[in-house]
Design brief:
118 residues, mainly beta, globular
């Protein structure tokens, strides 16, 4: 029988500490490694963090951007080795933990106030 401390120790070795602190509402640029055949390239996905799920190794964050008029959301595993780096472009000021209401908004209405605007 496997006990919880053993699992916690295994998970602790998988955690990443090189990612910056970011919150819901921040605009981030995620550099993600994509493997195509034998080649590997880095794709950049920039958007607003809609939600964060904090669960140790299983932590995820959802990033949304609008590309050619179509909303695109992507869920990233926070501690994945495929994430090359995460850059915080701007800090957003929001009062919620989930920003799903941005899905229905378009254009200027879908903006999030910036920390500098206060």
């Amino acid at each position: 029988m496997i006990t919880q401390p053993v699992i916690a120790k295994l998970e602790q070795s998988q955690l990443r500490s090189d990612l910056p602190e970011f919150r819901v509402g921040d605009t981030v640029r995620v550099h993600y490694k994509i493997v195509e055949g034998e080649k590997e390239r880095v794709q950049v996905f920039q958007g607003i963090v809609l939600k964060r799920h904090r669960a140790g190794v299983r932590s995820t964050f959802t990033v949304r951007k609008v590309s050619f008029g179509i909303g695109v959301e992507r869920i990233f595993l926070q501690h994945s080795p495929r994430i090359d780096k995460v850059e915080v472009v701007s800090k957003g000021v929001v009062r919620r933990g989930r920003l799903f209401y941005l899905r229905e908004l378009a254009g200027k209405a879908a903006r999030v106030r910036d920390e500098k605007d206060q």
